[in-house]
Amino acid sequence: MTRRQIYDIIETKSHSLASRTYDWLMLLFIVVSLVPLAFREQTVLFEVLDKVSVSVFIVDYLLRWLTADMRMANKPRWKAFLLYPLTPFAIIDLLSIVPSFTLFNRAFKLFRITRLLKILRVARFVRYSTNIQLLLKVLHKERHILLTVFFIAVAYIFITALIMFNTEDSAMFEDFFDALYWATTTLTTVGYGDIYPATDLGRVISMFSAIFGVAVIALPSGVITAGYLEQLKEKDQDKEQDA
């Protein structure tokens, strides 16, 4: 198999069976490699799964490095091979491999969670799903509104946390982070109940925060739903015109 064929399978937006199969196999190994992280005890089976999946990740990393010059066609060949390990996805790939080598401290095993980010590399299979494509279009189209709502929520959390922190003298709010935590759980209407105001003024602030939180949480849902319905309508109109 030539380097061009390898590149076409692992990197390009090809609809070929080989490219699709490679994507799904990589996704399968990513999921398999994460299974041991869900258990405290590491059995022999988990060790085997980890070694097999890491071997696949190493081969994938080397193949992508081998075809780096095709991916960075605008750069000299030697420079492409030199710069590839410094690219974001290459760093993610490396971090997902390193923790499995015992010569590193066990704390490095936490980096196994970066294997979740490897899904982003094989996530190009979402192009085969029309519904996902429509949702991505909606998020891109309404990004300004969604970002505005997000910043309003963050600002409101910060302001209410400041007010509560300076209003409540109880031991519940020992530092400002406790106030931020309370403001976040109240705004999202979760309210775990582990931190709560003791004064009447604090409770009034908490009620207003919860009511405001309902509106803030509901607004993005309405925006996304309306945008999604609009995209579906445009899609149906395009089908009628083509017909």
Provide a brief overview of the structure.
With 243 residues, the protein is mainly α. The protein is built from 11 helices and no strands.
Protein described:
The protein has 243 residues and is an all-alpha fold. Helices cover 68% and strands 0% of the residues. Helix 2 (17-34) packs across helix 3 (44-66). The protein has eleven helices and no strands. The chain has two domains: 3-127, Up-down Bundle (Four Helix Bundle (Hemerythrin (Met), subunit A)), CATH 1.20.120; 131-242, Orthogonal Bundle (Helix Hairpins). The protein has helices spanning 3-10, 17-34, 44-66, 68-71, 77-83, 88-97, 119-122, 130-141, 143-167, 176-187, 200-242. The protein is extended, with a radius of gyration of 25 Å.
Describe how the helices and strands are arranged:
Elements: H1 3-10, H2 17-34, H3 44-66, H4 68-71, H5 77-83, H6 88-97, H7 119-122, H8 130-141, H9 143-167, H10 176-187, H11 200-242
Helix pairs in contact: 1-3, 2-3, 3-6, 8-11, 9-10, 9-11
What name does CATH use for the topology of the largest domain?
Answer: Four Helix Bundle (Hemerythrin (Met), subunit A)
Terminal Cα span: 43 Å
Q: How do the SSEs run, as a string of H and E?
A: HHHHHHHHHHH
Backbone CA Rg: 25 Å
What's the β-strand tally? 0
Q: How many strands, what sense, and barrel or not for the largest sheet? A: none
What's the domain count? 2
Give the second-level CATH assignment, the architecture of the largest domain. Answer: Up-down Bundle
Global structural class: mainly alpha
Helix coverage percent: 55-70%
3D shape = extended
Tally of helical segments: 11
Averaged pLDDT, please? Answer: 79
| Name of the CATH class of the largest domain | Mainly Alpha
**Which strand-content bin applies to the residues?**
under 5%
Low-pLDDT regions: none
